[in-house]
What we know:
GO terms for molecular function: nucleoside triphosphate diphosphatase activity. The protein is mainly α.
Amino acid sequence: MRDYEETIARVRAFRDQRDWAQFHNPKDLAISISLEAAELLEAFQWSGSDVSVEGRTDRVAEELADVLIYCLYMADACDLDPLQIVNRKLEANAKKYPVSLSRGSSRKYTEL
Length: 112
């Protein structure tokens, strides 16, 4: 938990030292998350049937870090605890996707 709290503090400090909080409204952060996610996807563009991260780990890590940082900024802007909302969503998903019906299946919960 200490590492998590230290990371959150570093992310906030980075933003605050640059006076960027003024730009971090939910709309613009949602746009930024989507743009960074597209850059993550770009790391796999034209890879055909090659679905592994091999040979692109550094690029994937860099783009994924950008996505995660913007997600942390979004949670902060919306006064949401990232760990709490992730755990709440996992609980909801466990009900939607019971192991007995969803194990090994990629079908949506409405199709189980």
